[in-house]
């Protein structure tokens, strides 16, 4: 099957409040975005990689992706979901069989994880990586008071890349009424698409806060002398 990776990198990263969006922060010898892309561009089963960005970041983007073979970038939307939709619409002329949708904010995606998602798609329209939730969940009031939380039994945390049959997820995005869903499995659900889960990877965490960035830097070991 033809497979395209769609990487959304059009967010402003406001929770990190850095001088530039987090996907363009340095991480080891490259910018964070380059790490998030390389497992896809290197993967023998992936035909093309499409990145969605905010065009006002285009100078940073060109620097970040030096040496990568990518489709021309697509301009993102106001929300993550809008950015995914823009990327899917731009891919309609390729009409791949499969699309893997990935957050640029996850630089530690592995090729094994990509394989698990692709394998999972053999039997279903959608397949997402998940990790178990081991901490007990609490809901906090506006005053930071602890109230009861949802039972963690039966709950998992969703990661990306999330894989889908291209035609199915494009249709789900086109018909989805709500534009503030935070992942594509939620969009798939609105269209009644079956979505399977495979084992995610604890290293494949999403960079959201300054602490996440510190953890990411600690994971990039400097080259040996
Ligand atoms: O904000 P959050 O970290 O949840 O965003 C997840 C991913 O979606 C990030 O890689 C971000 O760049 C992307 N995004 C986007 N367009 C937006 C908002 C977020 O491409 N309008």
Give a structural overview:
The chain is of the alpha/beta class. The protein has a single domain, classed as Spore Coat Polysaccharide Biosynthesis Protein SpsA, Chain A, CATH 3.90.550. It contains seven helices and twelve strands. Strands 1, 4, 5, 6, 7, 10, 11 and 12 form an eight-stranded mixed beta sheet that branches. Strands 2-3 form a two-stranded antiparallel ribbon. Strand 4, helix 2 and strand 5 form a beta-alpha-beta unit. Helix 3 crosses helix 5 and helix 5 packs across helix 6. The longest helix has 11 residues. The chain is globular, with a radius of gyration of 17 Å. The mean pLDDT is 95. The site of cytidine-5'-monophosphate has 17 residues, from strand 1 and helix 3.
Write the layout of secondary structure elements.
Layout: E1 3-9, E2 26-27, E3 30-31, H1 32-41, E4 48-53, H2 58-64, E5 74-75, H3 80-90, E6 98-103, H4 111-120, E7 126-132, E8 139-140, E9 146-147, E10 156-158, E11 162-165, H5 166-175, H6 184-190, E12 195-199, H7 210-219
Parallel strand pairs: 1-4, 1-6, 4-5, 7-12
Antiparallel strand pairs: 2-3, 6-11, 7-10, 7-11, 8-9
Helix pairs in contact: 3-5, 5-6
Bound molecules: cytidine-5'-monophosphate.
